[in-house]
Structure formats: structure tokens, C-alpha cells
Amino acid sequence: MIDITYEQIKELLKIEDLFEPVKRAFIDYNSSSLIGVPVSLLHFPNNADTHIKTAAIKGYDYFSIKVVSMFPDNAKQNLSPYSGAIFLFDGKTGFPAAILNDKGFITDLRTAAAGAIITDFVASKSSTSVAVIGTGIQAYYQVFALAKLRQINKLAIYGRSKEKALSLKKKLTHSYPGLNVNLVDSAENAVKESEIIITTTSSKRPLVKGKWLQKGQHVTAVGSDDVYKNEIDSDCFNFADNIFIDSFELNKKYGELSHAIESKPNLIDKTIEFGAAFQNKAFQNSENKITVAKLVGVGIQDLAASVVVMNKLKKFH
To answer: CA-CA distance, 157 to 227, in Å (whole number)?
Structure first.
């Protein structure tokens, strides 16, 4: 079994490497090739948790098991709150093939790639103003990834911490010197002055309200991947013309849509999985609609990204 270090992964894997493989994985997820993508969540004291995500698809060289943890109290000991690894197994023999000690880096990049490709696919081509709600690493990567796919003329950042918002602004303007970035004082202002809204928080209460949305706006919500997290309210789904999700099975259990469909089961009628949407041009770059993309994270993303790392490792070594 190959042991791939965090440093190797950081060197080998770039966000632009993931756009096509992650898109292809979503399409394969919607096919008869899917074997399974079970998820298990473990909750520990002090808001700590571990997510275990598995993925197996017929015809793939590998199948995967990803374990990623977030233990906030680690910071008190000068340790990273985030840790994780992805295990790859040979698709033909079942033998262990590799352990990728990514410390959550692959999760960060594959989430950003998934969010960016669905946003770019669904949002109007003329949409160039973006709001990001949240100031953590995923806020950075979502904007970084989307800017690889489409022009962003204006970016609004909203976060509870002005210090963290300013830090995010500095990072993004360093990566994209021409980017016009403004810090705003409320989520409502961020939404109302932007065509594309990206939420990347672990909030337990809705930060974005559907009543703020107008025709032509698109929301991509990536932060709520658990039963208790909630970034956007049910009206965002109620007012949406179309809802796009990474997985029906998982969105019925986790995230905001799971709560919304309890009270309005017919929301499912206007909901479509990414893999099906990518194969239907009717959903591409819709004009004058309210659209929402909701991600809870699927193991196929980890599998797709890990295979990219393995292929690069074979190529360069």
C-alpha cells in the first residue's frame, strides 16, 4: 500500500485538475454504474465531529473510504482543528492500494470544484457579481475555483468577524489582483447586491432568506452538511424555479433541504441531481430564474480527486 503524504498531495493536486473528473463522477453517480456512496456521521462533545464517506462505481480502478474530522478544541493545544485521510482500494481485487494523508485538503478542493462547476453551469452567463457569506478556507476556495471558470467583476464578503473578512479579502486579492472586493455589514446587503451568492458557514440558523432573492440570482450553499447546520431558509427553496443537489439520498437526511421537504414534499418535483443536470442543456445558464444548488458532499468527489492524485503520482514517479 502506498502512503501519500500531505506535502505530496499539495504539490500534485490543483483545483483546475478536478473540474472535469468531479463533473464526470457526478454523471456516473446518476448511472447504473453506481455501487454505493454510504455516509456515516459521528458527533462528539464540544461540537466535534467526524464524517465517513464511501464511494464505489463500476469500472473505476479504485473505491474509497474518506474519514475527515473537525475538533474545534484542538486550537487550544495549537493543533489543527481539521484532520483526515482517504483510503483507496483496488477496484478489481479489493486490496488496499493507498492512503492519502490529506488532512482535509482534498475535501477542501473537491468541494470547491463541485461548487464552482455547478454554479458556472447553472448561473446566467452574464452574472459577474458574487457574494460569499463566510470567511473560512472554503469561502476562499469557492471564489478561487469559480474565478477559474468565469469572470468575476465584483465580490462582496460578509462574515461575523471583520478581522477574518479582511484576511479573506487580502488572500483573494493576492490570488486575483484585479478583483474588486468589498466587505459588507450584513448578509442581506451581500445578497441584494450580487447575482451569485455562495454560503460557506457552519451556521445553525439561516443566514440567507428567500424573500431577499430576485429573478436572475443563483445561490450555491455548501456549508450545511449535517442535521443541525442551516445556512439558507426554506423560502430559498420555495421561491426557487429549480433546485440542484449533489445527491437525493443524502439531501433528504442532511442540510437545509431535508427540513424544507418535510413541510413541502412537492419541492422534490423541481429538484434535480447535478449529474442529470449536466446532461440536460435546458438547465444550463438559465436567465431570469431563481436557482439554488445545495451540496452536502458525496464520496464520489473524494474518489474522483484521489484518482487524480494517483494518476499524477504514477506519471511523475
So the answer is: 26
- Distance CA(130)–CA(146), nearest Å, equals 10
With a cut of 70, say whether residue 48 has pLDDT above it. Answer: yes
Residue bearing the bigger pLDDT, 100 or 297: 100
Tell me the mean pLDDT in the region 220-246.
Answer: 88
Asked if 142 contacts 132 with a C-beta cutoff of 8 angstroms, the reply is yes
Nearest to 9 by CA among 105, 96, 108: 105
- Parent domain of 83: 2-106+300-316
What is the rounded CA–CA span in Å between residue 261 and residue 263? 5
Are 145 and 116 spatial neighbours (Cβ–Cβ below 8 Å)?
yes
The residues with which 44 forms a beta bridge, in sequence order, are: 48
Q: State how many domains the chain has.
A: 2
User: Is there a domain that residue 114 lies in?
Assistant: no
pLDDT in tens, 243-286: 999 998 888 888 888 888 988 999 999 999 999 999 999 999 98
